[in-house]
Specification:
CATH class of the largest domain: Alpha Beta
Strand order of the largest sheet: 1-2-4-3-5-13
Number of strands: 14
Number of helices: 13
Strand content: 15-25%
Bound molecules: zinc ion
Radius of gyration: 23 Å
Helix content: 40-55%
Largest sheet: 6 strands, mixed
Oligomer: single chain
Length: 396
């Protein structure tokens, strides 16, 4: 089947894809609460003849459907669908879901004859929570030869600068006292948190340009006339790789401890169980994606300093397990950042529909090429991650 034929198949599917995308966009759900999105997508797959397992791989809002040849190589199509607090689908995951759905539906009639097996995975909780990591721990990616997804952005990029990240919650405990009559009795947890925050601010001048540390105050006391006995801050600590993240984590921890020590308070640091790893794109897969993209008349760029999206994703961990790609497809005017209301608005409408359509065509073709394009599969395997990597990116 040629790229033109797959394009026509996806064109016929568009009303169904737009309907699913619109429904998910209109009802944003946060990480691990995406029951509506899961049901919406699972219903479409079921009505197209697939058996769908909801709550797959120990994750309530994950799903799985598999089809195609028993013997061929297996491609995983990853569908994200979680949203953000306040701004809904400001990361456009409804587009990821609809493009993945479209590629799956286009492959159903042809996979068996091609000798291709397809595993459709609904992967929740990308915006924190590490849904894919949890699923991977439970075997979601075993037997997978390539994992494919496509993320919307403000331009076509071959990949995202996805760096490692770990979340941290810092809990400060002091001693309450009357703030006017006996301040000397109090130990101020808010002061401790503020000094910890400022210590991190000082640290930022002496970290690599590519590293990021950002935090917010979650709790800073209850009433001004009571010395705060409890304060809480939440942090994202990011570095180029999981390896370089380790020493940065230690430095951030020291800064936060310093605030507590200065104020006679205690601090507990709770690191998120799942650290996100840096993304390692598979070169042969990415090269073929680029060729297909140009055949469609698109012009994907390699990220550069003035054209890049810096962030983190749990797809990074998957890329250390199986050959993977995470290209970005334009749905918003250049300069529209992810995680904004403007991007949420762009994730619905004509431009988003074009992104869904082309994304579905590209992923479906790439999956087919693994079995019909010379030695692409061999090259993908040869340049894939080494199995020794796996434990470190799932359990750290
Ligand atoms: Zn996001
Ligand atoms: Zn995203």
């Amino acid at each position: 089947m040629s790229i033109t034929e797959i394009s026509s198949a996806v064109d016929r599917l568009m009303p169904e894809l737009i309907k699913a995308s619109t429904a998910i966009h209109a009802r944003p759900e946060l990480c691990f609460e995406e029951f509506f999105a899961m049901e919406t997508l699972a219903d479409v797959l079921t009505s197209n003849g697939l058996r769908v397992k909801r709550g797959a791989y120990g994750t309530d809002t994950a799903f799985e459907a598999e089809f195609g040849s028993q013997f061929g190589p297996t491609v995983a199509l990853l569908l994200e669908y979680d949203a953000l607090p306040s701004i809904g689908h400001g990361c456009g995951h409804n587009v990821i879901a609809a493009a993945g759905l479209g590629s799956a539906l286009a492959l159903i009639p042809i996979a068996n004859d091609l000798g291709l097996r397809v595993r459709v995975l609904g992967t929740p909780a990308e915006e924190g929570g590490g849904g894919k990591i949890k699923m991977a721990r439970n075997g979601a990616f075993s037997g997978i030869d390539a994992a494919l997804m496509i993320h919307p952005a403000d331009r076509d990029l071959l990949r995202m600068n996805a760096i490692a990240i770990q979340e941290l919650r810092a809990v400060y405990r002091g001693k309450a006292a009357h703030a006017a009559s006996s301040p000397h009795e109090g130990r101020n947890a808010l002061d401790a948190a503020v000094l910890g925050y400022n210590a991190v601010a000082a640290l930022r001048q002496h970290i690599r340009d590519t590293e990021r540390v950002h935090g917010i105050f979650v709790h800073g006391g209850d009433k001004p006339n009571v010395v705060p006995a409890y304060a809480e801050t939440l942090w994202y600590v990011r570095s180029d790789t999981l390896t370089s993240l380790a020493p940065l984590r230690d430095r951030v921890a020291s800064a936060l401890h310093g605030g507590a020590q200065a104020c006679g308070c205690e601090v507990e640091l709770h690191w998120e169980e799942f650290a996100y790893a840096e993304m390692v794109d598979n070169p042969p897969l990415l090269n073929r994606y680029e060729e297909l993209s140009r055949e469609l008349g698109r012009e994907p760029m390699t990220p550069s300093l003035d054209a890049r999206v810096v962030g983190s994703t749990d797809m990074g961990n998957i890329s250390h397990l199986v050959p993977s790609i995470h290209p970005m497809i334009a749905i918003a005017p250049p300069g529209t950042p992810l995680h904004t209301e403007d991007f949420a608005a762009a994730a619905i409408g004509e431009s988003a529909s074009t992104g869904i359509r082309d994304g579905a065509v590209l992923l479906a073709n790439l999956a087919c090429d693994l079995v019909r394009q010379g030695d692409l599969l061999g090259q993908v395997r040869a340049s894939g991650p080494s199995p020794e990597d796996a434990f470190g990116v799932l359990f750290n």
